[in-house]
Amino acid sequence: MTAGPRALALSLGDGATALAGGLLWLESSASIVVADLHLGYEEAIGGALPLWSLDESLQRIATAIDAHRARELVLLGDVLHHSRLSDAAGDRVVAAMRHLRSICSLIVVAGNHEGPTRGSALLGDSVEEIERAGMLLHHGDHPRIGGFRHIIGHLHPSVVLGGERSVPAFLSARELIVVPAATPYSRGLNILTRDCRDAIGAYGARPSSTQVIAATAEHCYPFGSIGELARAARALRFPERNG
Prior knowledge:
Largest sheet: 9 strands, mixed
Number of domains: 1
Helix content: 25-40%
Order of helices and strands: EEEEHHEHEHEEEEEEEHEEH
Number of strands: 15
Mean pLDDT: 91
CATH topology: Purple Acid Phosphatase, chain A, domain 2
């Protein structure tokens, strides 16, 4: 599998741009879109790790807002890994949301991990979906076809490089943009699996026309379509299994 020339950012059409670090830029509304932060994951698995990902994520988002002079930040669901956190962890999340609101207009889109409460005690008010430049932004746990180009998270797409190595990836088709997960803890959904094909197919997107852009912290790498990657994987006898 060979990627195209690396870049700091790559256009996905309709004024949407994939940024290094797995963030999405929407030009018309000057919005930064971030999916699947899963804040508090460390505590949810038993407090084995400190909440270091919160500070790292906050800094990365703030840097992008400043660099692009963004007017709006959209958190595209699963901002929290679980809505029930200890008082100490919850206070840190509340402080993080307060800081983001102080530097930018903040919209929280509800995800499935926030549960029925939508995490409102920690995140404040949320919405189910928003429209920007004729595109519909929602978490993606309830797929639908038609009417809009959809921008979703939820799937955690990734390019599996072999062994335990993988890289988060954008998926881009006429019908759909999938934003990679911002959490550092998810290996992600292998884009070559049937699960991934079925998930994008629910929006009418086809593997042959869905482009893959891997996103490291420093660069974006275009890999061609899912269909092209699948053919290359078969030729190289890479296993197509869930990541």
